[in-house]
Amino acid sequence: QETIHLSEYTPFGFLIDAVHLTFDLSPNATRVKSRIDFRPNPDATDSTFFLHGEKLTLIEARIDGTPVTPDITDTGLTCTVPDAPFTWEAEVEIDPANNTALEGLYMSGGMYCTQCEAEGFRKITYYPDRPDVMATFTVRINSNMPVLLSNGNPAGEGDGWAEWHDPWPKPAYLFALVAGHLVNHPDHFTTASGREVTLNIWVREGDAHKCAFGMEALKRSMTWDEEVYGREYDLDVFNIVAVDDFNMGAMENKGLNIFNSAAVLASPETATDGNFERIEAIIAHEYFHNWTGNRITCRDWFQLCLKEGLTVFRDAQFTADMRSAPVKRIGDVIDLRARQFPEDQGPLSHPVRPDRYQEINNFYTATVYEKGAEVISMLKRLVGDDAYKNALDLYFDRHDGQACTIEDWLQVFEDATERDLTQFKRWYTQSGTPHLTVAEDWADGTYTLTFTQSTPPDANQSDKLPQVLPIAVGLLSPNGDETVPTTLLEMTEATQSFTFDGLSSRPVPSILRDFSAPVVLDRESSASEQAFLLAHDTDPFTRWDAGRNLARDTLIAMVTEGAAPQGAYLDGLAAVLRDTSLDPAYRALILALPSASELAQALDARGTVPDPDAIHDAQETLRQTLAEKLQDALPGLYAAHQVDGPYSPDAASAGHRSLANAVLSLITRLDSGAQAQTQFDGADNMTQQLAAFGCLLQAKRGEDAIAAFYDQWQADRLVIDKWFSMQVIFAAPDAAASTAAALTRHPDFDVKNPNRFRATLGGLAMNHAGFHRADGSGYALLADWLITLDDLNPQTTARMCAAFQTWARYDEGRKAHARAQMERILAKPDLSRDTSEMITRILK
Ligand code: B3K
Ligand code: ZN
Predict the structure, then answer these.
(1) Does 151 lie in the same domain as 9?
(2) Which stretches make up the Peptidase M1 membrane alanine aminopeptidase domain (predicted)?
(3) Last residue of some domain: 429, 459, 478?
(4) Are 477 and 364 found together in one domain?
(5) Which ligand 1 atom is nearest residue 308's CA?
(6) Number of domains in the chain
(7) 439 and 420 part of one domain
(8) Using CB atoms within 10 A of its CB, is residue 374 exposed (0-12), middle (13-18) or buried (19+)?
(9) Distance of CA 567 to the CA centre of its chain
């Protein structure tokens, strides 16, 4: 396999003035005609005329009207061209109906749609398919489909055709085309400077009632980007299309965002509070890309975090503003620890800006996205809000219309703040999660914190250098008052001390407030101190984290020493639950236990081989103990947080439901599911129905609910995805693989639909003790299906290989099973580049 290196970047030998495309759509034989005006690039040294192209049948090619015969390989063509401006014309034929990889032009449920990022455009026509080649596109679509869409503004339409023109130069990865029998949910928006924008969400006829929330979220996003970043929309129309078969959440194509239907469609009956929140965030994310991604794009794919880290950071700010900032922050940290930490600390570790890849689709990772966003959050914390705003204004000003690098981005901050960011840049180039240890000293009213940072070596760097760490700290006095409010310490050395003078008593430190840096805080602290912070900390994040640490430590003691659940944790939790001054959503977060994989990671970090069954048992025991301990309070809490009236997905209502449903899950351990059955039978929204469904499955009395749920929702693909995943996620460890296997034989299982595949096999990977079954049955089932899917859809196959990334932390027996299954995958004939790269890296 060929490895591509960041250090080998060279500019393309030609610039493009304009691209004209004509599509004659037909399921098995779509013709694509291109007319592209090239001219030599004065900044380039290599003038080879190479156009990417894959799975294309070339019908004819011309240069300045004269037929030419290019040299064609599997990856593209080369051709001799004039040393002066010239016009390239080509006609190719492609087969969208058989495109199961869902990359390039493909069909989903009878409609045509595209996915070009990162390198899908080369499956549509011959083109320099790289993000630093930007051009204006004019697109004509010939088809008898009633709705014909592409990027930019409408430029004419008639019977069987439509034309679109996008005035903003863009790379090919932002190209999109849609043609289908669609209905629209229309609206409009007036920008701050008075541009009238037509908004549409396009869906299949039966989904028209699921668009209203997405549209409101879009308008909120447009307003927010004007108010907070001063960024206006720049076309006359903004279209969103919902597609059932899609490899990821959504795609920010210029003026024509294409969404996985699961990431845009929502109604109270069919979508949960969590779905609504996620939809709002994804709509915002894709919309925000219009500036951070589209107007300013990436020079090459190594710079992916330039647009993704920044846009994730922006969508997190948006959600924090729309909803509860602490709840959003805690949710993001849970996600970071669950997805990014294992990646950064395992065989798939790579820098936020990787420096090599075989298949770029394998680098749309939690590290690039979520750690990339953490890096921007740290930068903002270090320079301050005003300087951040000035830097962003300068960034938009200086680089509008360009394809940029991380160096450009950091230069903007250096120029706007006069800070030297040489050391900070390591966050982009050095992989791994720093571990931070803390020593304390107290003498004569002076309290000293000494931090030591270290990052374990990995395949990317054998010697890790100290990072710049913004460490937000507050100090509490023993009576619970805050004596030193949040202070930002800037750590740059491997070991560094910070002192606080004039204190009357030895304080209790609250360290890493708001999770100010993406590190592992290895601080030995007593249960009583954690309980103190859980009771008194003024920072919502560290307060929650104190509870989390207590839960983790008690679970670890249960697993390793057979200890009983710790009183400090149970008492602390009971107090939080009763504290009605706290936001219900926040209380629900404190009630949740660390996940099994987080515990496995914590055990591994302590040098103990994690036993998935023991972890599962400890979690079950702790939940049962909690339920019994809180027995008297539970019915009252459940009743107090029922939300009356018609369903609304707002954060406050959702918070009440999330607390009530966390309580319901405890009640289920005491009443064997009686209350859950009542809630399931009477639910008028999916949040309530699904929570009750989960309780019934957990109580092993789900049979009737499984049948009833299916009967009710069999016509709704998105709800049936939930039906598939819930049964696997809630299966007992010894039944998870067989449940998943049985579901793959269900008539509604569709290997070609990524949502259904992920619901079933991804559900298995989420069932920790079920996937990591000692007999290897979980690994074997996943491997069977990855081998089947690889021929059809390499991207989704490769992404799901990550389920194996933690394999080396388990015992020899499990390791042998995992290795054997990965070797079986590697041995599959014609294994895709995507899957081969993933498994090879994981096995290293
Ligand atoms: N930019 C797309 C992701 C494309 C993934 C290609 N494998 C969605 C997003 O991040 O907004
Ligand atoms: Zn993105």
Answers:
(1) yes
(2) 213-427
(3) 429
(4) no
(5) 10
(6) 4
(7) no
(8) buried
(9) 37
Query: How many Å apart are CA 771 and CA 612, to the nearest integer?
Result: 9
Hey, which residues are catalytic here?
286
- Using CA positions, which residue lies closest to atom 3 of ligand 1? 251
Q: Which atom of ligand 1 is nearest to the CA of 249?
A: 8
Q: Taking the CB of residue 244, how many other CB atoms lie within 10 A of it?
A: 21
Distance 818 CA to ligand 1 centre (A): 30
DSSP 460: S
Q: Report whether pLDDT(524) > 90.
A: no
827 shares a domain with 719: yes
Sign of the alpha-carbon torsion through 675, 677, 678, 680: positive
User: Which atom number of ligand 1 is nearest to the Cα of residue 247?
Assistant: 7
Could you tell me which of 147, 177, 174 has the C-alpha nearest to residue 161?
A: 147
Q: Of the ligands numbered here, which is closest to the C-alpha atom of 794? A: 1
| 371 lies in some domain | yes
User: Ligand 2 (ion): which residues have CB within 5 A?
Assistant: 308, 311
Q: Is the peptide bond before 118 cis (omega within 30 degrees of 0)?
A: yes
**Ligand 1 binding pocket includes 616 (Cβ within 6 Å):** no
Average predicted confidence (pLDDT) for the chain: 98
As given in the structure block, the two tokens for residue 11 are: 């500019």
List pLDDT tens digits, range 5-44: 999 999 999 999 899 999 999 999 999 999 999 999 999 9
Q: How far is the CA of 344 from the centre of ligand 2 (A)?
A: 20
Q: Which residues of 649-684 are buried (b: 16+ CB within 10 A; e: fewer)?
A: bebebbbbbbbbbbbbbbbbbbbebebbbebbeebe
Q: Ligand 1, atom 10: nearest CA belongs to which residue?
A: 308
> Residue 474: beta bridge partners?
510
- What pLDDT digit, counting tens, does each position of 643-657 carry? 999 999 999 999 999
Q: Which domain holds residue 442?
A: 435-517
CA of 335 to the centre of ligand 1 (A): 18
Q: What is the mean pLDDT of residues 619-628?
A: 98
Instruction: Classify residue 606 by burial, with Cβ atoms within 10 Å: 0-12, 13-18, 19+.
Output: exposed
Where residue 478 sits, what CATH number does that domain have? 2.60.40.1840
Q: Does the complex come out with an ipTM higher than 0.95?
A: yes
Residue 618 lies in a domain: no
Nearest-CA residue for atom 1 of ligand 1: 251
Task: Mark whether 2 and 149 lie in a shared domain.
Answer: yes
Distance 159 CA to ligand 2 centre (A): 36
Residue nearest to atom 2 of ligand 1 (CA): 251
Ligand 1 contact via 117 beta carbon (within 6 Å): yes
Contact yes or no for 266/275 (Cβ under 8 A): yes
The residue nearest atom 5 of ligand 1, judged by CA position, is: 117
Residues 6+ apart with CB under 8 A from 453: 434, 435, 436, 466, 467, 469, 491, 494, 495, 519
User: Ligand 1 center to residue 298 CA distance, Å?
Assistant: 13
Mutate to test the pocket of ligand 1, among 252, 254, 311, 833 (most ligand atoms within 8 A of CB): 252
Pair 21, 150 in one domain: yes
**Residue 374 — very low, low, confident or very high, per pLDDT cuts 50/70/90?**
very high
Distance from Cα 272 to the centre of ligand 1, integer Å? 24
Considering 179, 194, 214, which residue would you say is the last residue of a domain?
A: 179
pLDDT at 311: 99
Query: 340 and 446, same structural domain?
Result: no
Are residues 409 and 446 both part of a single domain?
A: no
Predicted local distance difference test score (pLDDT) of residue 784: 99
Residue 765 resides in a domain: yes
* 186 domain-assigned: no
Q: For 33-56, what is each residue's pLDDT tens digit?
A: 999 999 999 999 999 999 999 999
Instruction: Give the CATH number of the domain where residue 423 resides.
Output: 1.10.390.10
* Token reading at 485: 């409010």
CATH number where 52 lies = 2.60.40.1730
Q: Ligand 1: which of 102, 106, 116, 117 to mutate, judged by most atoms within 8 Å of the beta carbon? A: 117
Q: Is 361 in the pocket of ligand 1 (CB under 6 A)?
A: yes
